[in-house]
Task: inverse folding
């Protein structure tokens, strides 16, 4: 728009070259700083605690990486882990996404080749922050394709510090997601680039990064479905082009073949329903391409309509074929995890094991704000802006936004896939805002209209967005007016007048950015940087107090038990026991065998007499439980106990029944009113064994449940307390061996305690003949 | 598919002059019992090479367990009239002896509720009320009704061939089901337990028999001597009374002109209890693939695996472990939760003591154990 006046003057004696060079330098410097900030803010965990692997799954990844680093890739590939899922064992090489471990292994080998003897643990700890810098860069590239460099820089800055992503990528959070988000964004970038240019090179690059993603994270299915969805949308919008054909075909063909090289994936891309969408779209594209080709050579009108009919017919046949194959069992139907995405109650009903994981729960609203802060408000605006130009790549962002928003609402965990999209959309919106208000050009307005326009502060629309006219001011709105608002009024000049309006909006925007940074820093430092292996509390004087019960207990196991002592615990702690205590476990976070987990659940929720044969059959030497009642640690086993009951009930509905663990009034209690099934359960007994003694005659208080525990301690006949950590968080019990004299252990204990036995009579052998 | 192997062995041992586990014997002998009256039994032990230490039940020294270590390889308790022992002898300490590898020979008291009697319940033995010894009026003889000649019953421990009836006086007991119990000597079918020899309670017995035998202490199902092999291979010999070990009973005629079988019987029973006889041992186990010699950490499907073991038996005469190939029903289990393969483990004829089998590993991955579970009475 041609303007005469300017709100403020720009230096005019600068050559365009200088401007270009300076801006490119600034971009590089900003990207470097953004990477620095992204890495630095993830180091809270290391600074506040130490360089340690966090949580649960990362412990397995870390252990696997050590195997890979010490024994090499082939040994890792063939690794059969006899200590996991005892006695079943686990074929690790074939049940793992090796991308993460391979990445660390490569970095480890490169560093060692350079004579930098870095410990593998430190590589694992710092991998996620490192990759977050790469994520920032790939988001920059992606957003650049959407709008321009400045939006790209904003998006990079957002993704660099947004808590939604930090939550999964702090130092020590050595999990698949740590590298997956980078791969996700880069694959999308390559895809957009391929689509834009019609380049088979970028299509292949997209396929290669897709392969890397498949090797790294189970969430690759998101890409597998996003790209076909995008392609399908474009086809339906009538935007089929040879560029789309080249990009999609090169991505799908190479990507699918490559992904099948990952042993854990294998033939799934042609055998499961989740992958059928991509195959279908591939087929559709071929048909359309063929039709286009034929059409360009044939001119007859009748023939063309025949062609269309045959194309549609082929499409229907193809769909029917897939459905038929599914019914025949050649193609696996949707998995339970997938169903739970559509019906949030599904998992709870049919697969309690999935529902029992907290990160599979639906997202609470506050967490959207917590994880995304003001980006969540800008997000719709950014998506709306995509509609304005609606180029092919904007369609992608729109679809991504819709799909990811839904999934993020269903599962907390999928907030992670939403985050990059939110950052991109918000950056687009935010940079549009800045573009508009920093642009010094003043609209050329006839005098009489100037006042009316100036009085309207809501004129946030940019000159680059001519479709949205500014709001009309005073008169009562009618439908016509309302429509009129969105109708382009080319005659009316619009824009921003004066410096004060600009400053007001820009300063507000900057303030938002500042608050965003403060919020991100605060959330990162307080919510997402806890390793959960080490807990922190504060002393009365405000200093930090470290609660290190987990490692204390795992170390005890490592030092005091034989190498092949089998430890039973709930599956949450399987990876940690294997990683830190180096002992065989019955079940772990891999959760591949529901029956085995249910067996542990049954042992925990049954009485001692019932549990003992199960323990002996599985050669269990130690039972480890987490008890938070003394300290108020709410993530303990009593709180998870109902899931154990439910999972066990799923397999043994006649023996374990959930209602038995509630009081008649439906309450979950651990005090005197606890139902007998609860009080007799192994888990209850192990948790509260000798708990009341701590209180020296005072009423014993469970600080998690806020209930009083009865003064008499439960008795254990089949287990011996072996270890209790400082704050009672971890309690380890040793399973007794069979009695020397073949007695029931209960009787044997009574004998040891010196109690008299009931007199017995000789067994009756004969029946009287009447 | 890999089979991860772990050799775990459980072998119950069955089986005769010097013990396989040690020669020190502590005899808790009541002062009222004359040591000379048991000379046949005790001298027999000494001749076999045992070192006997005698101690009255109330003496404090020598202690049975000192610093948590059992001081003797075998303990004999002959104390039918002692109600309270020295502090170191309690039912609990006697049981703990078993876990420390000490064998026991215990004689019950027919008159009093001693600690030995109360301990019997822990070994799945059911005793009649105190003061009810075994009585039998058959066969007609010149001895009191409580001194009974018992024809040895067929049992895996004491060879009965050519063994003359054994004189017994004491208390019978009944078994409750326990696989660890080994019956050695059962009561004659005409005998019963009663509190007097006058048969004043005979009617009560008849009545009880009519009621289905409840509370009836009678018949050949009652035991007089029983063996008990605890987990951990320690052995206990339960005898209904001390008299059967005495010289008096050993020299008493049980058939015309012939001495009773007591001396032989108690010697053989003690040999079992002190782990002289019927003691087997697994010397070694090994597994490897066919045509290889070293074991592997993992076996994969279709691997043919050779498992062999070497078993020897203790020869008390020479005190040497000799290869033993006499087991024909040995089995090997290849187990993960359940046995996936159960096969016989036959002896190798060319190599005494050697048992070997070759089998194909099942197509199932997991941690498998090789288990030999050979439990036989005796």
Result:
């Amino acid at each position: 728009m041609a303007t005469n006046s300017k709100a403020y003057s720009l230096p005019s004696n600068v050559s365009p070259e200088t401007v270009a060079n300076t801006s490119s330098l600034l971009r590089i410097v900003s990207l470097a700083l953004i990477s620095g900030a992204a890495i630095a803010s993830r180091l809270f965990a290391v600074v506040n605690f130490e360089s340690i692997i966090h949580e649960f799954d990362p412990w397995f990844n870390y252990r696997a990486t050590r195997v890979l680093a010490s024994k090499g890739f082939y040994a890792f590939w063939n690794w059969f882990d006899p200590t996991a899922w005892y006695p079943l064992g686990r074929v690790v090489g074939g049940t793992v996404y090796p991308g993460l471990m391979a990445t660390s292994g490569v970095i480890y080998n490169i560093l060692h080749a350079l004579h930098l003897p870095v410990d593998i643990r430190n590589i694992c700890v710092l991998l996620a922050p490192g990759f977050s810098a790469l994520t920032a860069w790939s988001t920059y590239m992606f957003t650049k394709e959407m709008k321009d460099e400045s939006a790209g820089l904003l998006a990079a800055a957002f993704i660099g510090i947004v808590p939604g992503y930090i939550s999964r990528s702090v130092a020590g959070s050595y999990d698949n997601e740590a590298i997956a988000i980078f791969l996700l964004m880069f694959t999308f970038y390559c895809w957009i680039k391929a689509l834009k240019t019609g380049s088979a090179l970028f299509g292949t690059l997209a396929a290669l990064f897709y392969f890397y993603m498949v090797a790294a994270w189970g969430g690759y299915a998101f890409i597998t479905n996003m790209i076909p969805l995008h392609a399908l949308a474009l086809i339906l919008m009538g935007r089929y082009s040879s560029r789309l054909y080249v990009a999609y075909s090169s991505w799908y063909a190479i990507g699918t073949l490559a992904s099948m090289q990952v042993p854990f994936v294998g033939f799934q891309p042609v055998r499961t329903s989740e992958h059928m969408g991509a195959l279908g779209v591939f087929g559709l594209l071929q048909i359309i391409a063929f039709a286009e080709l034929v059409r360009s050579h044939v001119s007859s009108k009748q023939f063309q309509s025949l062609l269309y009919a045959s194309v549609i017919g082929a499409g229907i046949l193809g769909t029917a074929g897939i459905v038929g194959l599914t019914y025949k069992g050649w193609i696996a139907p949707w998995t339970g995890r997938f169903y739970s995405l559509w019906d949030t109650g599904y998992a709870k009903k049919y697969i309690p094991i999935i529902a029992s994981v907290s990160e599979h729960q639906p997202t609470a609203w506050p967490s959207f704000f917590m994880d995304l802060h003001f980006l969540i408000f800008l997000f719709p605006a950014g998506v709306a802006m995509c509609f304005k130009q609606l180029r092919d790549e904007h369609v992608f962002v729109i679809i991504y936004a819709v799909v990811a928003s839904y999934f993020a609402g269903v599962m907390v965990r999928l907030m992670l896939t939403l985050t990059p999209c939110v950052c991109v959309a918000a950056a687009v919106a935010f940079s549009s805002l800045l573009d508009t208000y920093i642009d010094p050009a003043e609209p050329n307005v006839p005098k009489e209209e100037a006042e009316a326009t100036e009085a309207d502060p809501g004129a946030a629309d940019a000159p680059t967005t001519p479709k949205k006219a500014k709001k009309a001011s005073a008169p009562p709105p009618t439908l016509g007016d309302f429509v009129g608002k969105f109708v382009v009024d080319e005659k009316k000049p619009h824009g921003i007048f004066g410096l004060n309006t600009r400053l007001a909006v820009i300063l507000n925007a900057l303030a938002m950015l500042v608050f965003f940074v403060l919020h991100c820093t605060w959330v990162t430092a307080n919510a997402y940087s806890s390793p959960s292996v080490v807990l922190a509390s504060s002393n009365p004087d405000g200093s930090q107090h470290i609660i290190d019960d987990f490692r204390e207990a795992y170390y005890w196991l490592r030092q005091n038990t034989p190498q092949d002592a089998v430890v039973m615990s709930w599956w949450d702690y399987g990876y940690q026991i294997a990683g830190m205590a180096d002992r065989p476990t019955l079940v772990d976070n891999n959760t591949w065998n529901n029956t085995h987990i249910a067996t542990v659940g049954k042992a925990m929720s049954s009485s001692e007499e019932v549990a003992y044969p199960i323990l002996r059959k599985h050669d269990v030497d130690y039972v480890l439980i987490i008890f938070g009642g003394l300290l108020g640690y709410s993530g303990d086993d009593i709180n998870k106990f109902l899931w154990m009951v439910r999972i066990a009930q799923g397999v043994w509905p006649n023996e374990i029944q959930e209602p038995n663990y509630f009081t008649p009034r439906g309450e979950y209690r651990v005090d005197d009113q606890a139902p007998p099934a609860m009080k007799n359960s192994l888990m209850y007994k192990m948790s509260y064994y000798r708990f009341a003694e701590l209180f020296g005659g005072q009423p014993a208080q469970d600080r998690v449940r806020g209930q009083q525990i009865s003064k008499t301690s439960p008795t254990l006949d089949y287990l011996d307390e072996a270890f209790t950590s400082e704050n009672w968080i971890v309690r380890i019990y040793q399973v007794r061996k069979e009695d020397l004299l073949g007695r029931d252990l209960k009787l044997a204990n009574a004998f040891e305690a010196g109690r008299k036995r009931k007199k017995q009579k000789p067994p009756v052998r004969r029946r009287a003949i009447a | 598919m890999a089979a991860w192997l772990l050799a775990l062995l459980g072998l119950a041992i069955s089986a005769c002059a010097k013990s396989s586990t040690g020669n020190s014997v502590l005899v808790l002998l009541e002062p009222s019992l004359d040591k000379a009256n048991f000379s046949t039994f005790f001298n027999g032990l000494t001749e076999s090479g045992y070192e006997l230490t005698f101690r009255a039940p109330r003496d404090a020294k020598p202690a049975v367990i000192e610093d948590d270590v059992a001081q003797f390889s075998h303990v004999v308790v002959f104390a039918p009239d002692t109600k309270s022992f020295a502090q170191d002898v309690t039912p609990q300490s006697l049981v703990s002896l078993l876990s420390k590898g000490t064998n026991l020979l215990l004689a019950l008291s027919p008159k009093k509720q001693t600690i030995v009697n109360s301990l019997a319940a822990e070994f799945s033995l059911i005793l009649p009320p105190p003061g009810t010894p075994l009585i039998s009026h058959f066969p007609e003889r010149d001895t009191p009704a409580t001194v009974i000649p018992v024809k040895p019953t067929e049992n895996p421990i004491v060879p009965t061939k050519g063994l003359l009836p054994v004189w017994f006086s004491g208390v019978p007991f009944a078994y409750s089901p326990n696989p660890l119990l080994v019956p050695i000597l059962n009561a004659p079918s005409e005998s019963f337990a009663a509190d007097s020899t006058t048969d004043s309670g005979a009617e009560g017995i008849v009545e009880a028999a009519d009621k289905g035998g409840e509370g009836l202490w009678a018949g050949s199902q009652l035991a007089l001597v029983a063996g008990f092999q605890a987990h951990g291979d320690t052995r206990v010999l339960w005898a209904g009374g001390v008299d059967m070990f005495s010289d008096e009973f050993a020299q008493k005629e049980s058939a015309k002109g012939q001495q009773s079988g007591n001396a032989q019987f108690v010697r053989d029973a003690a040999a079992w209890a002190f782990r002289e006889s019927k003691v087997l041992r697994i010397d070694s186990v090994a597994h490897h693939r066919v045509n290889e010699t070293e074991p592997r950490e993992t076996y994969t499907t279709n691997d043919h695996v050779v498992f062999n073991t070497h078993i020897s038996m203790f020869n008390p005469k020479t005190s040497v472990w000799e290869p033993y190939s006499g087991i024909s029903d040995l089995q090997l289990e290849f187990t993960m939760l359940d046995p996936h393969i159960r096969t016989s483990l036959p002896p190798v004829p060319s190599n005494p003591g050697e048992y070997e089998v070759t089998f194909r590993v099942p197509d199932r991955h997991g941690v498998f154990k090789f288990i030999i579970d050979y439990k036989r009475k005796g």
Summary: Residues 24-273 of chain B form a domain with the Rossmann fold fold (CATH 3.40.50). The CA atoms of residues 189 and 220 of chain B lie 4 Å apart.
